[in-house]
Fold each of these.
Amino acid sequence: MENTTPKKVPTHVSIIMDGNGRWAAKRGRERSFGHIAGAETVERVAEACRDRGIKYLSVYAFSEENWNRPKDEVDTLMKLLADTISNKLQKMIDNGTKLIVIGNREKLGDLLNSMIDFAVEKTSGNDRTIMVVFFSYSGRWDILQAAKRFALENADNPDAIKNATLDDFSHYLATDGIPEPDLLIRTSGEQRISNYLLWQAAYTEFYFTPVLWPDFGEEELDKALLEYSLRDRRYGKVK
Ligand code: IPE
Ligand code: IPE
Ligand code: MG
């Protein structure tokens, strides 16, 4: 396809990958079939982002609330993360992609945690593109864990707490060091944030599409990027 990349390219594109279950249901298949298709889409979209010079791609893959789904679906999603990490690690190394995984890791098993640590370590020196996977994540969890760590680390220093700036506090968020998303895409027609980057999306541009995640591709990405390039980001100021 002709490269229609607009001039104003976001540094960080984030995606709420939604609609796998409905995609499978439309085909008369079980939900896990949709999740497997959805995992394939991640790779295609990551490649497309790389081609378009997008430095950071982050994806919401599993929310804290998703733990409340039926056990077999949760098991499928855990296995899918493990398989994706092991199958795609060499490719990430070859592509110069750094992998970052963010979320409440205490809820993941030892095996999955060690696989994540291994892949993160192996790709830690890369900086061509950064792939952030939000897994067992929620925005409220992130703010709460930041508040706890901030308070505990400054327990002997009430002045540091009293005088803390937004910037001081944000260093305790799990996303520290990652620029805030410029563009947040949500697939499947839902128009809500579902406890995603509550703090970090304060001035993010939102783009909603009815396309179900397994059907999302380069053309859809380009539509979102084109719309982004036409947005006027004012950050509360006047021109
Ligand atoms: C997104 O697809 C993947 C996860 C939330 C893990 P869903 O599984 O939410 O699919 P729908 O929304 O039920 O179609
Ligand atoms: C949001 O999708 C979470 C992920 C895509 C990982 P959900 O399908 O869980 O969100 P709701 O339930 O529709 O808000
Ligand atoms: Mg959903």
Amino acid sequence: MSTKYEREDDRPLAPGLYLVATPIGNLEDITLRALRVLRSVDRIACEDTRQTQKLLNHFEIRTPTVSYHMHNEGTRTEELTSELKQGARIAVVSDAGTPGIADPGGQITAAAIATGIDVFPIPGANAAISGLIASGLPTDQFVFHGFLPAKAGQRKTALEELARGDVTHVFYEAPHRILDTLADVEAVLGAGQHVVIARELTKLHEEFLRGAAGEIRSHLAARASVRGEIVVMLAPSAVEASSEKRASLAVEVAALMKSDGINEMDALKRIARERGIGKSEAYRELQREQNRLR
Ligand code: SAM
């Protein structure tokens, strides 16, 4: 299948609703099309007008804004839909990332569609997809859950109800809850559950932590505080099983070095022979395991 790219469109913007993704940290992640749409629409409906104004000022965009957030979504949807019916061009943006994804946007989209108004997605940054593609976890099947419940009991129930198997699970989490959430993951899915934490994506202090839930929790708990925005991902059970196998390689190497008084390389060669795998494959496996927590 070939991808057909189209040149930048210089025709006036068609009437309709434009769902415009904005950066999740790095301002360079705004697209050329998003800028053109934000410049050309009649109004921009913003989750927080002050927050969006900073973005608009940076790009010298003078389009009027109006608030559209979870507390006025219903009434604003009615107002904006009646403007759209008269041929207005309206953009919806959230504070960061893709509108409608754990953010306002869904209600006005449904109302516009029900009224026969055109809805245009203007794709761009999204924290879940950015975290997932760099997680190292399978991306062929995944489930996005938004935020886990804030209350401990409900969070545990939500984790218990996860359909395990071959899918990667993706969550958003607040920094002040991450240690409790990891403790719940350990309690419900086991301390060995393979977890990936993506923190401060696209920003200066972007960080990925990959490893067993218990190890990651101790690693984060040792910090004075955990800050920033976080995506949590849980590996499918198959990956968990293979990471357990990797862990046992390091444990076996250490045990052999101790019992037989040999060095790491000799221990690794012997284990590789016993497992019927090549020396270099065993070495790479050991390194991967050691790197998981760096
Ligand atoms: N609509 C947004 C999107 O497309 O990703 C998500 C909005 S949701 C209210 C905010 C949550 O997304 C944060 O609490 C965090 O879990 C996640 N998030 C947003 N920006 C992030 C970033 N730069 N790094 C990691 N997670 C981020």
